[in-house]
Amino acid sequence: MSLDSVVVREFNPNKDRRRVEEVERICEVGPSGKLSLFTDLLGDPICRVRHSPAFLMLVAEIGDEIIGMIRGCIKTVTCGKKLSRNGKYKHFTTTTNNNNNCNDTIQSTTPKHVPVYTKVAYILGLRVSPSHRRMGVGLKLVQRMESWFKDNGVEYSYMATENDNIASVKLFTHNCGYSRFRTPSILVNPVFAHRAHVSPKVTIIKLTPNDAESLYRSRFSTTEFFPRDIDSILNNKLSLGTFLAVPHGSYTQDTWLGSSFFLSHAPKSWALLSVWNCKDVFTLEVRGASRTKRALARTTRLLDRTLPFLQLPSIPDFFKPFGFHFLYGLGGEGPKAVKMVKALCGFAHNLAKEHGCGVVATEVSCREPLRFGIPHWKMLSCADDLWCIKRLGEDYSDGSIGDWTKSPPGISIFVDPRDF
Fold first, then answer.
1. What's the farthest any 2 CA atoms get from each other in the chain?
2. I need a labelling partner for 65 at 20 to 30 A (CA). Which of 32, 206, 345, 401 fits?
3. For the chain, which residues make up each domain, given as ranges?
4. How far apart are CA 215 and CA 217, in angstroms?
5. pLDDT tens digits, 201-238
6. pTM, two decimal places
7. How many CB atoms lie within 10 A of CB 246?
8. Fold of 186-383
9. Which residues cross the membrane (predicted)?
10. CA 376 from centre of chain
11. If DSSP codes are grouped into helix, strand and coil, which group holds residue 363?
12. Three-state SS at 141
């Protein structure tokens, strides 16, 4: 095959859908020789990018045969922070009020940091038919996608892959000029047949999208990769809500007076997260499992049905298509924030159970202190997901930040649910 005979063009949903699905079916996600994770896009090949502000899908074909595809999306995110030109802002320090577990406030001023935004692109869903790999098709798809990024003023392009996916890492770092950037952790927990325990010492409040946006922008807008259009995410039909955990007795759904009041009268510890419904976008299926592993999974479910009083953690059937919820925007403050996150994850587990999901997943920085409150199974999780980045723009968005690709990692990272 000559690479010159490969045509790269925009995906046409009217004539390409069936052929794209055929390529998807024969491509596996994950290291070869191990369990493979297959994705069913439910008849919509662009489902994983269509909720982004701008997106494109390209296909590579020879004659009438599609041999590869790639998706890309563009958005504006935080790449750093700087001191506000206004210098200072009103800040509320706190003193404990033992009667209601809340804090009284004292107004003061401190230097204010504001986010520095940049226009970035994200590459995902790169697939090449097994019979046409190592021929330069993947590189041609990436280069064509990057041209579209540049035409739209993108400064940086990044992608995510498994750290041990040697072929993918080599393509992007050796052939495409990307560099290793961040290594967040994907934490996955099964949704069991029984409801998870949520501590009675914690009250969970569902926030309105406006309150959630206000809280996120006030406390987390300087977090790396924070999306400037957070309001679009929170108001999206796939966002099932933002949930705030506070100590019992401090606030309730009925006594909630809004995020502005909360920020000036915050408890000593609190946490929040949002839930994204991936189940309505695509499903997953584990293939390649041995008969022994399948039998063990069936045994746990059989024992649970036979002896329900034991509350056994029966393993969901991952060998059939299953959906999941993605937890994003995890954050919190105070000495008991980890416990608050644990309560929120229990609440999210029960919500996923009600929606018939197989797992709950999230992705956090490997340095994130709140990760210790996130329950997960090591065998299902990925401790070292790899994000690679490349600078496309000739100029920088802000002189105080410089080249983002060379910046050290922060404590936290904001993972956009539209990218997962």
1. 76
2. 32
3. 3-79+115-153, 186-383
4. 6
5. 999 999 999 999 999 999 999 999 999 999 999 999 99
6. 0.88
7. 26
8. Aminopeptidase (3.40.630)
9. none
10. 15
11. strand
12. helix
